[in-house]
């Protein structure tokens, strides 16, 4: 009875050794668009079926069609790289993952005996990096002096911030980390913000535009022709100011005998009388007056 027991187990072991065994480390793989991903795969083939070629295929979501994407003998597509062999390693690497790469994959083993073996491989999910913004202020617009918190996220992390990120402003590296805190914002803080995986700079999020709004500043009056010239009676006053959003209202004042008189509402004003003038500008965040200019207009 004991000898028979060992004989049965040896026979069973022989059967198992002549079976295909394909192992994938993960059945569902999540990757960020633009990154690289590896499908770790190992296999054991029956002793009487020598593998001569390993093929990977891809079945796109919501379709019944499939196509080969990689081979152990030659490169079919440059982004799909077979990194295994024909012995025990059947791994595949995808470079610069795209949205269209999502879906089910399969691996096929062609043998010397022309008896191919095929098995389903992992399903790939492709996601985008997203930027979440929170403000300390409840105002809709971002104003000068406000503070904002930006967080780079991808759903592959399952809601946990575990990936390493790099932040960019207008394409230039700015910060490393999952979040960046922008405090006491100024007009120079305005720009296009993106984040990417630190190990895959091609995996860039969509652009988040931060536009810091502020009231009028640097309001000046340009006199044409310049003061000191001999223009006769033709002066032109041009009011300019920096503001975001742009200046909504221009008001020209003529100062005579200590009183200010409203004389115009356009950026350009043509005075007729010798006196002092200034312009006042406003947008939704405030107003500012220019310095006073004194004109000496010759009578005709």
Strand and helix map with partners:
Elements: H1 2-17, E1 21-24, E2 28-32, E3 37-39, E4 41-44, E5 51-59, E6 66-71, E7 80-82, E8 92-94, E9 103-111, E10 117-127, E11 130-135, E12 148-153, E13 165-169, E14 172-176, E15 179-182, E16 191-197, E17 200-204, E18 208-210, E19 214-224, E20 236-244, E21 249-256, E22 259-264, E23 268-269, E24 275-283, E25 286-289, E26 293-295
Parallel strand pairs: 2-10
Antiparallel strand pairs: 1-4, 3-8, 5-6, 5-9, 7-8, 9-10, 11-12, 12-15, 13-14, 13-16, 16-17, 16-18, 19-20, 20-23, 21-22, 21-24, 24-25, 24-26
Organism: Oreochromis aureus
Protein name: Ig-like domain-containing protein
Pfam families: Ig_2 (PF13895), V-set (PF07686)
Please give the alpha-carbon distance between the first and last residues: 134 Å
Radius of gyration equals 36 Å
CATH class of the largest domain: Mainly Beta
Number of domains: 3
Q: Structural class, from helix and strand content?
A: mainly beta
What's the CATH topology name of the largest domain?
Answer: Immunoglobulin-like
What sequence of helices (H) and strands (E) makes up the elements? HEEEEEEEEEEEEEEEEEEEEEEEEEE
Shape: rod-shaped
Read across the widest sheet, the strand sequence of neighbours is 2-10-9-5-6
Uncertain stretches: 1-8, 10-16
Largest sheet: 5 strands, mixed
Mean pLDDT: 84
- Helix % is under 10%
Tell me the name of the CATH homologous superfamily of the largest domain: Immunoglobulins
Number of helices: 1
Shape-level CATH architecture of the largest domain: Sandwich
Q: Count the strands?
A: 26
**What percent strand?**
over 45%
InterPro entries: Ig-like_dom (IPR007110), Ig-like_dom_sf (IPR036179), Ig-like_fold (IPR013783), Ig_sub (IPR003599), Ig_sub2 (IPR003598), Ig_V-set (IPR013106)
Protein name: Ig-like domain-containing protein
Pfam families: Ig_2, V-set
Domain Ig-like: 122-213, 216-294
């Amino acid at each position: 009875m004991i000898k028979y027991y060992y004989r049965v187990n040896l026979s069973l072991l022989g059967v198992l050794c002549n079976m295909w065994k394909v192992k994938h480390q993960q059945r569902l793989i999540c990757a960020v668009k633009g990154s690289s991903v590896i499908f770790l795969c190992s296999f054991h083939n029956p002793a009487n079926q020598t593998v001569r070629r390993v093929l990977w295929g891809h079945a796109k979501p919501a379709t019944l069609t499939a196509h080969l994407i990689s081979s152990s003998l030659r490169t079919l597509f440059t982004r799909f790289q077979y990194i295994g062999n024909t012995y025990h390693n059947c791994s595949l690497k995808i470079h610069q993952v795209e949205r269209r790469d999502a879906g089910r994959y399969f691996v096929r083993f062609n043998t010397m005996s022309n008896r191919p073996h095929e098995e389903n491989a992992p399903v790939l999910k492709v996601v985008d990096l997203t930027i979440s913004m929170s403000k300390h202020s409840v105002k809709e617009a971002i104003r000068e002096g406000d503070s904002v918190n930006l967080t780079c996220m991808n759903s592959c992390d399952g809601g946990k911030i575990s990936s390493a990120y790099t932040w960019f402003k207008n394409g230039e590296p700015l910060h490393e980390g999952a979040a960046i805190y922008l405090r006491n914002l100024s007009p120079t803080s305005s720009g296009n913000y993106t984040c990417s995986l630190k190990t895959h700079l091609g995996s860039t999020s969509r652009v988040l535009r931060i536009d810091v709004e502020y009231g009028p500043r640097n309001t000046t009056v340009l006199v044409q022709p310049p003061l000191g010239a001999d223009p006769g009676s033709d002066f032109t006053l041009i009011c300019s100011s920096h503001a975001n959003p742009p200046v909504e209202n221009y008001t020209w004042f003529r100062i005579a005998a200590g009183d200010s008189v409203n004389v115009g509402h356009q950026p350009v004003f043509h005075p007729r009388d010798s006196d002092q003038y200034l312009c006042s500008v406003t947008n939704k965040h405030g107003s500012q007056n220019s310095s006073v200019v004194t004109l000496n207009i010759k009578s005709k």
